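Thread title: Can someone regenerate the structure for this chain?

I was given the following input by a collaborator and told the matching structure tokens would be attached. They weren't. Posting the sequence so someone can regenerate them.
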Amino acid sequence: MGPTARRGRAEPSSRDRLPLLVVCLLLRTCEVKAANASKPNILLIMADDLGIGDLGCYGNDTLRTPHIDWLAEEGVRLTQHLAAAPVCTPSRAAFLTGRHAFRSGMDTSGRTRVLPWNACSGGLPENETTFARILQQRGYSTGLIGKWHQGVNCHSRTDHCHHPLRHGFDYFYGMPLTLINDCQPGRPGQVSGVVMPTLWHYTRLMALGVLTLGPGRTCGLVPVPRRAVAAAAGLVVLFFASWYASFGFVRRWNCILMRNGDVVEQPMDLERTAGRLLEEAVAYIERNQHRPFLLFVSLLHVHLPLVTARRFRGKSQHGLYGDHVEEMDWIVGEILRAIEENGLRNRTLVYFTSDHGGCFESTDSEGQLGGWNGVYRGSKGMGGWEGGIRVPGILRWPGVLSAGRVIDEPTSLMDVFPTVVELAGGQVPQDRVIDGRSLLPLLQGATERSAHEFLFHYCGMYLHAARWHDKDRGRLWKVHFMTPRLHPGEAGTCYSLLSCPCSGEGVTRHSPPLLFDLSRDPSEAWPLSPGSEPLYHAVIARVDQAVREHEETLSPVPPQLSLGNILWKPWLQPCCGTFPFCSCSPDGDRGDM
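Best answer:
Regenerated them for you:
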């Protein structure tokens, strides 16, 4: 056999292998691009305290929300979308995990139903699985811009056991807690403006007494035991700390911005915060335009205090709150524009919602500061009435979801978890109860009915109401076991002055339960009775059976909102600079809108 034949069977040289390697690399690149193309980007936008009736696409003709309305025109609008809890912390825990918040200990039987401090030890447990963690494992870049409100630390200032980075997010920029009045200088703090000035008055009197007793005892002029002087001095320090914490340190400790694990602004400049969050969201989209990403934009709008840019003030028909809603709509429009300008429109599922109903009770001397929940009864904090839990639900994915479609079936914020996990090619955890159901069959028209036959509506740890979608009869029943006591003549205002309680004297227990047919009476104005509804007893019996079956899925877990977990702990306080005088600000003049 000649040399030419032998060379034909020999291994190719380095020069000969080069074209083959290039082709293989190109093919692999194409495979990667094809795989990435099959995974849509996911943009989740959640407003805070927004009423479903505040948006034009849900019937408001006096507020201008053109960008969100446009999103609804190009996508699918859910009319019966429901939060799993009527306040921030438990609602968001359920949204992130696809399961009722009490399953992770993120709800309570006490009065404090949200995390009140950055320095609490409670928060979303590390053993909970968020949609961000699953998508991260599926190769997604995962970011959270805005509000977290699921805790920060457990044992030390830097353990970050509850932090977004420990729950599947690659990047976090935002507020680890939530907005409070203290975040805006000059506004009354969360503590009563009557109690604290009185406390300060007595603090000054006690301080004067200690300053008199101390030198008098030293000089032998006042026969007072040393322990008495020390005790009085201790009380002065305690009273002063209480006053200073309420009117000074609360803003410094709670109103902060973090980038990943670092505090970057303390206290934050609320006038610039919305602009900074918008810049971060747009920058995140630009950085990740060439790879699949999950971006959760958790807006601070429209939670109090309503700090609004000058260009939007006085522009709406509904005062400061209306101005704030219209500013929020503009921010959403800017984020959508970033999706368009980066060529991601057809590769991105966009979802818009609110964490619960509008806060009807928020008022001041200038008028209403809370949202409008449309025809629905109740407001934020009320676990059973529709106004506390019915929220906007808008999804857009051009070329996949039909434009302008309206779905009247019961759906839940908890459904987002299995939906985005399925889109990413992942699987929901099999070792725990998942209360959410994938929305994809409903959105894509594969089914006309919701996967939820029953939904359970909690206030704290208390089951206030249950909903039965009676598909055979086409009826939607709502059974109320407890309802909050309301002020006579003040529709939607709780009997308690502090907040809507979930139990005790602030609620009315109904025996027999109240029954409504939401398919005919969405405002829950006309309770049914055995005399007016022939199916009354059959419906109550069926819902009772469903409640018993649901309760069999419950199991005890460590309470994250217990008294010990919600107390302020100085060793857990996120801080830049020297504690307790934490202070830092970002470089430059960012955040203008």
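The chain has a mean pLDDT of 86.
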